[in-house]
Specification:
This protein is an alpha/beta fold. The chain has 17 helices and eleven strands. The strands form two sheets. The protein has a six-stranded parallel beta sheet with strand order 2-1-3-4-5-6, sandwiched between helices. It is globular.
Length: 360
Amino acid sequence: MRIVVVDTYYDDFLKTCPIGNGNYQEELNKVLAMQFATADFYSRNLRAQGHDVIDIIANHEKLQERWAAEHGCGTLLRPAWEQILLHNPDVIFFQDLSIFPIDRLHALKNSYLLVAQHSCPWAGDDSVSCFDIIMTSFPHYVPRIEALGVKAVYVPLAFEPSVVDYCFPDVFPVVPTETIQMDFGRIHDCVFIGGVGNPSHWKRGMETLETVARDIPTFKWWGYGVETLPTGNILKQKYQGQAWGREMYEILLRSKIVLNRHGEVAQNFANNMRLYEATGCGALLLTEDASNIWDLFRGGEIATYLTPGDAVQKIKHYLAHEDERADIASRGQRRTFADHTYAKRMKQVSDVLIGALQAA
């Protein structure tokens, strides 16, 4: 099966991606090796399933210009479009439903199986209905997608264990195959890596972050949105800057507790990547007591909170009881390595795509 995985990256991250003198594929590989978001986690694990897969970062202007120069193409939108046509895939897998206008999606759908991953604020009925299959980590999106006549598949997000090799090559000269709960020097007591906002679609999450920032002296956070916070907001005092990809994983690997929050769009379902990034890196995950959290983890593998004040009390408890914290973190890491890897998720994705093509 020939697959094209098409993604877009945050603008702030793209600013950290200078283009060197290599050819397009060499420069693309450098960007993917920075481990931002899903990086090449889909493509490499789909290749392991025997498929021919390429990655396209559609909004990386300099990369697209490099490809266009090598292939004689024109404007920014065109190179991504031309790459798809040149590869002539069986499946186009979109990580962002807004990459192309709706008329272009319909044109692609006439020739290819159109698939997307959609686990963020709703893209709109018109966009969703352009696709043959939508995969989502939001359980509540499944009936909403199906109501539009699109096949919906619940696929939780995941962790890529090989990121540890990128972050600590001297410790792991090869990709680790077992859990990695060991002393990386966990110098950060409690961290959050992600976005904030004022106003925000993380209303309850902002309340939790601000309460923890006020009551946990050693709390730190990295991410984006700090410029939206009002003067004097406690989160500004705890801000450490942005952290993308490999840098983010290095922080997680050196953290004792990782605080998690979801936006209201999740509707009390646990779904985000931080669940698996935190546990996969061997930190204790402290997340909301969501309705499906114990479908993803078992008791004694993570910690949950009910209110911002409860989160503070849990953080204080686990910082004061290191052996208990480390034991729970180790159990959570084993669960993620066993059940929540991209290798496992891409086997599910592969089976769905093969079935869809055979039925076509």
